Amino acid sequence: PVSSFNYGAKKFERVRKGILFTWRFDTIVIAALAILMFAFAPQVIALFRRETEIIEIGTNALRYICVALIFMPTIMIANMTFQSIGKTGRAFFLACAQNGLFFIPLILILPNLLGILAIELAQPISNIVSAIIAVPFLLVFIKQLKNMQVKPDN
Description:
Elements (H helix, E strand, L loop, with lengths): L1 H7 L3 H28 L1 H6 L5 H18 L2 H13 L3 H27 L1 H33 L6
Helix pairs in contact: 1-2, 2-4, 2-5, 2-7, 4-7, 5-6, 5-7, 6-7
């Protein structure tokens, strides 16, 4: 709502600052929580199952997800920003990239090559690649916002 309201009001500097603040803040918070979860992954998995093999597999999978979580704010901020300001084509592409373009092919192809490891890695790889794709979209838009700022009349 903050993005769409300020974008509509042509307060582009506020939109830019909001994106940058949210991107930084969310990344820091998610990174802190991901580090905590990474450290305690075996204990978290053990809350649900007691079998040694399941704890081992679950711990690896959870840790891979924790690494990928650090990239989630980038994906979410890019997607939500473009949705909120009416750039639906970009928002649609970024939303499709994560699951449609990357996750589905990875989960269908990789298990034949890597077995259980592929199942553990498909979602994290999908998230990381989607974030790498989202970064240029966000950076270009942030630069455009800086250039679009309406100068007050003197």
